[in-house]
TrEMBL record:
<feature type="domain" description="Carboxymuconolactone decarboxylase-like">
    <location>
        <begin position="30"/>
        <end position="114"/>
    </location>
</feature>
<dbReference type="InterPro" id="IPR003779">
    <property type="entry name" value="CMD-like"/>
</dbReference>
<feature type="domain" description="Carboxymuconolactone decarboxylase-like">
    <location>
        <begin position="168"/>
        <end position="250"/>
    </location>
</feature>
<dbReference type="InterPro" id="IPR029032">
    <property type="entry name" value="AhpD-like"/>
</dbReference>
<dbReference type="Pfam" id="PF02627">
    <property type="entry name" value="CMD"/>
</dbReference>
<protein>
    <submittedName>
        <fullName>Carboxymuconolactone decarboxylase family protein</fullName>
    </submittedName>
</protein>
<dbReference type="InterPro" id="IPR052512">
    <property type="entry name" value="4CMD/NDH-1_regulator"/>
</dbReference>
Length: 257
């Protein structure tokens, strides 16, 4: 039987990101690993040129949190750190996931991140990145929400929410945006790519994916960047969720034909 191994380009990419790591699956499942690595670490990467490697890895980590893939997240977090994603950035990816995936899911990823960072000799806690206080989070969050989503859209959300749901709108402004989007460590356009990646990976969040396609366009992430991000996510989140997110991109930013 001929040995099945990934091609030269996939092997080189794998060695760059995971230096010295030999997958046990390459021994037990060589056929799958051959064509998965050829796809994820060669073919796919030829179509992600609109995002740099660091950003691609950050969006992949965000998506892995959304799908609950703790084991793969640990491996890819190591790759991200090898590719010079900073410890602060890795923590900010996890924090950014809380309002979208929920703390129940994110809890395990926070511990996994702490374990990986500690194993690399990085002292915790890291320097804080919060810029708001309990007294300012609502005002600054609402301002950030309007900058990202747009004044009209935010005003409409408040206007259309029944009286007994107004507190949810305030939570969105004060918590989702005030506690998270106002943080330093990762800029707003990158945070929007992370959010888009999480929502695409979650599944069942089509309205929110559509809303954050518009938000990405609003903060300067064009269609080509969103397509590149989804291309990088495809091997890890599958075709159905990728195609649903592509439909949202096509609706908000149709391709030139």
């Amino acid at each position: 039987m001929t040995a099945r191994k990934p091609n030269a380009a996939a092997t080189a990419a794998h060695e760059r990101l995971f230096p010295g790591h030999i997958s046990t699956l390459a021994v037990t499942d060589p056929e799958l690993i051959e064509y998965f690595d050829n796809f994820a670490f060669d073919e796919v990467l030829r179509h992600t040129g609109d995002v740099d490697e660091r950003t691609r890895l950050m969006t992949q980590l965000a998506a892995m949190i959304a799908v609950g893939a703790v084991a793969e997240y640990r491996v890819m977090l190591g790759a991200a750190l090898t590719a010079d994603v900073t410890p602060v950035e890795t923590k900010e990816i996890v924090y950014q996931a809380v309002p979208y995936a929920g703390m129940a899911r994110v809890f395990d990823f926070l511990h996994a991140t702490n374990d990986v960072l500690t194993d690399r000799g990085i002292e915790l806690p890291l320097e804080g990145q919060s810029t708001t206080s309990p007294d300012t989070r609502m005002e600054q969050g609402l301002a950030a929400q309007k900058r990202i989503v747009g004044d009209r859209a935010v005003d409409a959300m408040y206007a259309n929410a029944p009286a007994d749901e107004q507190h949810i709108q305030r939570f969105l402004s004060g918590n989702c945006f005030g506690d998270h989007y106002t943080r330093t460590g990762i800029d707003v356009p990158t945070r929007e790519l992370l959010t888009f990646s999480m929502l695409a990976a979650l599944g069942g969040a089509d309205a929110q994916v559509k809303g954050h396609v518009a938000a990405n366009l609003h903060v300067g992430n064009p269609r080509s960047t969103l397509i590149a991000v989804l291309t990088g996510l495809l091997p890890f989140i599958g075709y159905p969720r990728t195609l649903n997110a592509l439909a949202a991109v096509d609706a908000a930013a149709p391709a030139d034909r």
